[in-house]
Amino acid sequence: MKQNILITGGFGLLGSNLYKFLVDKKYNVFILDKKKNFLKKNYLKVDKKKVFLGDYLNKNYVKKIITRNKINVIFHTGAVTQVLLALKDPEYTYNNNIIGTLNFLEIIRKINKKIIFIYSSSDKAYGEVGKKSYKEETCLNSIFPYDVSKSCSDLICQSYAKTYNLKIGILRCGNLYGPGDFNTGRLINGFIISKIKNKQFIIRSNGKLVRDYLYVGDAVNAYYLTMKVLINKKENLRVYNVGSKYNLNVLDMTNKVSKIVDNKKANLKILNSSKNEISFQKLNFTKIKKELNWSQKVDLNIGLKKTIEWYKTYINLF
Q1: Which of 77, 110, 149, 178 lies in disulfide reach of 15, CB 3.0 to 4.6 Å?
Q2: Is 215 considered catalytic here?
Q3: 201 lies in some domain
Q4: pTM of the predicted model, to two decimals?
Q5: Is 262 inside any structural domain?
Q6: Residue 11 sits in which domain range?
């Protein structure tokens, strides 16, 4: 039986790529997103009858969508994702990221415990662990608002799986990049856009923050494999790190992108003003490789080339 699937934040980087992947596999896929202007720049070619423009903080609205469309699987990728926005407005971030997640869990608990819920957590949920890679059992020890919003939602999801026997997947990804990202506050796509437009790019940190960088297609595959295992196996909680063998600092990444775009030196302004961010993160992803046979397939240079080509094609949208 093909599943009826709902993707929250379906116009975002992860959501939109997940949507295309699942539609290609002939699943019946719906999107919930509050970006009303997105349909005008509809490179996704979505079926507008399957798009719900609204806010998942509206619990009754969400409940109607789930019941009327007999949703079997929910991928919750919608969130406040920008660290700086979260620092400026922690209340909005906590409401959106924590209460929004709780709404789905409560609806599932009350109407149909067989609905599979897959939560998009983050490597930021771990907080600052030091110069070592994080395993799934590493304590979630975050401090800053965005990071805490992810830790809390992650723990709440685990609680609902263990207490109410809900079928839940939790994926903690590194920094995602790829085609279809309209969030220009992110490093890779923001920098690519500035290079194409020949503008200066501002780095808010000292340029030395280290992160895992993962092509969105590899992340989508991890989400898909998690859904499949939750459908087919009895175990009701799956928690996975989705990391990358490419672990770079900001300046190394901008240099790499510069070489591919035009082989000219990057025009950067380094503010060194961002003190409220984790300095080093690296995910250990042995578990997902072993249990789901997931592997990172897209080479960093190839992934960056695909991403740059997409932005060159759609640069008029930015």
Answers
A1: 77
A2: no
A3: no
A4: 0.95
A5: no
A6: 4-179+214-245+281-297
Q: Which of 146, 177, 215, 223 is catalytic?
A: 146
- Matching residue, tokens 């009858």: 49
And the tokens for 90? 């922690």
DSSP characters over 15-58: HHHHHHHHHHTT-EEEEEE--GGGGGG-TT---GGGEEES-TT-
Q: Which helix (H) or strand (E) holds 221?
A: helix 216-232
Cα 75 to Cα 288: distance, rounded to the nearest angstrom: 18
List of residues 6+ apart from 187 with CB closer than 8 A: 175, 250, 253, 254
∠ CA 4-289-254, rounded to 5°: 90
| Distance, CA of 314 to CA of 42 (rounded, Å) | 11
User: Does residue 239 belong to any structural domain of this protein?
Assistant: yes
CATH number at residue 241: 3.40.50.720
Label residue 239 exposed, middle or buried (CB < 10 Å: 0-12, 13-18, 19+): buried
User: What is residue 9's DSSP assignment?
Assistant: T
Instruction: Note the pLDDT tens digit of each residue in 122-161.
Output: 999 999 887 778 999 999 999 999 999 999 999 999 999 9
Query: Using the 8-state DSSP alphabet, how is residue 133 labeled?
Result: P
| Rounded Cα gap, residues 228 and 224, in angstroms | 6
